[in-house]
Amino acid sequence: MTQASHTVPTVKLLINGEFVESRTSEWRDVVNPATQEVLARVPMATAEELNAAVAAAKRAFESWKKTPIGARARIFLKYQQLIRENMKEVAAILTAEQGKTLPDAEGDVFRGLEVVEHAANIGTLQLGGLANNVASGVDTYTLLQPIGVCAGITPFNFPAMIPLWMFPMAIACGNTFVLKPSEQDPMSTMKLVELAVEAGIPPGVLNVVHGAVDVVNGICDHPDIKAVSFVGSTRVGTHVYNRASLAGKRAQCMMGAKNHVVVLPDAHKEQTLNALAGAGFGAAGQRCMASSVVVFVGESARWLPELVGRARALKVNAGHEPGADLGPVISPSAKARILELIESGVEEGATLELDGRTPDVAGYPRGNFIAPTLFSGVRPGMRIYDEEIFGPVLCTMAVDTLDDAIALINANPNGNGTGVFTQSGAAARKFQEEIDVGQVGINVPIPVPVPLFSFTGSRGSKLGDLGPYGQQVILFYTQTKTVTARWFDDDVVAPVNTTISLK
Ligand code: NAD
């Protein structure tokens, strides 16, 4: 933590439509992970500032919930246009503060943009149902009504996409929102928030508070917040789910992962190896849907040396440098944690096929770089298998049959994503049916669903039953009200001997 300094820009709070300087005495540096340059200082907002943001959101809800659905939708039509126009600028900020390559940063923004486009369709999404004549002269119908002030807490690894998973859908449904971005890289999120205000989101409908533990706990406890969306680690997500639920809120928490990809001997070899290298090491492995464990079945284990070769060929560099395949990890402490895990893998008997611990990145001696690192002979019980590494480290293991691979994956507590590479429809279908993981790729390494569907991680990777975007989140961000209605009309002559019975 540092004191605010006048030489470095400060990240602002957004309260009731105003971008304001925090009055806190606690600040944290936002640091470029390739250079250690301090880009900005982010405040740890005070309890009063959180209360002010929630109060603004509560006031704004009174009029926003009555705003016609077409008027809400049009703001998101405008917003998607502004994001497109500013894509390069947002991506450049994102690369500077997060480290991922510029193409990855644009992908981060683009996957969020897709959710904004979906929010612009809210008119066809927030529809109730109607059953005509459930009893004589009686209809029953449902209204999907907004629930009030909602909050979002986001991680460092997708500072564009994940905030955009949350506030556009919540607000399009008629709610108001308080966002708590990652304190490690809040600047690209704030650029997107500025564009949202420019697109016409009214004062108080979207608010932003920065901070860490205290602000998150304050959100979980606040009596005027009705729902909390969280994306981040399993440890923090479990805490948020428990604390928010105890305070009577809806909560959905998307959490950590260990994603296995199964390679059958009949897989398309070139496509598979390219996909594994990209999905294992892209974004320096800091994706919740990264392929972090490759399970070779039978003869496919012979491809290991070629996978190592592809991993070795990837270029580590600062994210804005042309040709970079992966950038640095987010912080020196993340790098130290990953290096310690690699060391544990060696000590626990895995074979270090490729050692990326000391890369030479010309021009960036202070960056948090780790080059692609690959283990074979990994087993459950080793820390590199049991823990989420969240770095450019790929574990590989070999099993005899598809059944063995399925049993291994189903025994792992995580259920975020998985995949199978094969040319056999029957094998792929068996995998799809028997695997107990919420998101499955068939010859697709990172199967994050487009917003026509919802993100559907499962088991240890998720708490709460509804996903963070798509159709499921409409139910998360609304209360279903069911109306059973009968109208009396003296001018309408009721059929003789008919009574309305409501049993
Ligand atoms: P994190 O859990 O450290 O932080 C997430 C948020 O929680 C941040 O806003 C942070 O300020 C806050 N926070 C951190 N520590 C806290 C504490 N002790 N009490 C209360 N709040 C706290 O996660 P991260 O390191 O930013 O992100 C990486 C993790 O997120 C990985 O585990 C990754 O798998 C996961 N993730 C999951 C998904 C998914 O959809 N399942 C998507 C992206 C990332």
UniProtKB/TrEMBL annotation:
Signal peptide start-end: none
Pfam family, one: Aldedh
Keywords, comma-separated and alphabetical: NAD, Oxidoreductase
CDD domains: ALDH_F6_MMSDH (cd07085)
Entry's Gene Ontology BP terms: L-valine catabolic process; thymine catabolic process
Sequence ranges assigned to domain Aldehyde dehydrogenase in this UniProt record: 19-483
The protein, known as: methylmalonate-semialdehyde dehydrogenase (CoA acylating)
Source species: Azoarcus taiwanensis
